[in-house]
Specification:
alpha/beta, Rossmann fold, 390 residues, single chain, 14 helices
Length: 390
């Protein structure tokens, strides 16, 4: 709120005076913004469960591995690959090094780097940019072993020099799929394909009879950025939903991020019968939703990963190259389509042909990739033990 004063002598000039109320309100909103940021930081750093207790870091004989990966944005995909990494390296400890982390752990990680036995590069498409460079490159310069956990590789690697140095030492694990292998060529590096990090959670003998009489179809929409064909994909999804609702199928929207919740609510406004679920917090939370679904169609990469792990027939809306990378790792490229080409007819065809998935062959393939992850992790732990004990 501003007052405008004009003087008769200078009619074309004006003096603006901010009112005390407007000034006070500006201070209040600024304080509220700072407070919200603090609460967000506090929840991620001290209440998320991502960070090991201080007494374990100080007194446990377990190995400590720095973890490089996305966390703390209520993105289930990030949480899933972190959970998989924790399972892979248990009973040892993973210490995520992030901007939003407990202050005492950030200080400890910096001043007591000798306690850190290696670096785990988590799932997600991470090889490209590089954050917290001084800390992570410091570990590399100290020749700590590196484990790459099904990481995706950008086509254009912005920090190519640093990533070349990171991947030139003692490196174990592998990348997500064939496209990631190809993208590493620019760094003159070669790593094996180990599939998505979450493949380590796969249980081949786990079966569910609840799908036998189910009429549940899982759907998902949500991305962090716009892409070519998005409006077309949403239109096709709406037409598919409309058709299946008329045929008495149960449509269930499963969000993996707050962005998805907004899009799901928009769909729900048009189709009130859609059931909206909460964002899962763990692998098991998500798995139960897929185990009794007869079909899944969606955008999020780890929505597709969860469908695969639950042996649920699916169609992937490949809005990014990472989807194709994932599907190629399992010879499943025909189970995805670029959004610009999708129609409701295409989704219907995949729904009708949902029994064509060869789950026995897929299970064998995932088990093989899982075994490679385990073998590589054991070798990584073994080397980190030798270097840490000498």
């Amino acid at each position: 709120m501003r007052c405008t004063l004009k003087f008769a002598k200078y009619p074309d000039q004006a003096v603006y005076i901010e009112s005390p109320i407007a000034h006070f309100w500006g201070l209040v909103t600024n304080k509220m913004r700072i407070f919200r940021k603090f609460i967000s930081y506090y929840n991620v750093a001290y209440r998320s469960g991502h960070f090991p207790p201080l007494f374990q870091l100080l007194f446990s004989r377990k190995k400590i591995y720095a973890y490089y990966g996305f966390l703390g944005d209520r993105n289930f995909g990030d949480e899933l690959v972190f959970e998989a990494a924790r399972n892979l390296f248990a009973p040892h400890l993973l210490l995520p090094f992030r901007r939003r982390m407990p202050v005492h752990l950030r200080l400890l990680a910096k001043i007591w780097r000798a306690r850190i036995s290696g670096l785990v590069i988590g799932g997600g498409t991470l090889i490209g940019p590089l954050w917290d460079r001084p800390f992570f490159m410091g570990l590399v310069e100290e020749e700590k072993p590196i484990f790459v956990h099904g990481t995706g590789v950008h086509k254009d690697i912005s920090c190519a020099k640093d990533w070349t140095r990171i991947l030139s030492g003692s490196v174990y694990g592998g990348v997500r799929g064939p496209q990631s292998v190809t993208n590493l060529v620019s760094l003159q590096q070669v790593l094996p394909i180990v599939g998505d990090a979450a493949f380590f959670m796969f249980e081949a003998k786990r079966t569910s009879s609840s799908r036998d009489h189910s009429r549940k179809i899982l759907i998902n929409l949500g991305t962090h950025s716009a892409y070519n064909g998005k409006e077309n994909a949403i239109r096709a999804m709406r037409e598919f939903i409309n058709f299946q609702v008329r045929n008495d199928f149960d449509i269930v929207f499963l969000p993996f991020h707050e962005i998805d919740v907004v899009l799901g609510s928009e769909l729900q406004a048009s189709f009130p019968m859609i059931k909206m679920l909460d964002i899962p917090e763990t692998y098991e939370n998500a798995l139960v939703h897929f185990e009794d679904a007869i079909f899944a169609v969606g955008e999020r990469l780890h929505f597709i990963v969860m469908a695969i792990l639950a042996t649920c027939p699916f169609l992937s809306l490949n809005y990014a190259e990472k989807h194709k990378d994932l599907l190629l790792s399992l010879d499943l490229v025909l189970a995805g389509i670029v959004p610009a080409s999708v129609t409701s007819t295409v989704i219907h065809e995949h729904f009708k042909n949902k029994e064509l998935f060869d789950w026995a062959a897929l299970s064998n393939r995932i088990q093989l990739l899982k075994s490679i992850q385990k073998k590589e992790a054991d070798a990584f732990i073994s080397e980190s033990s030798l270097k840490h004990d000498t």
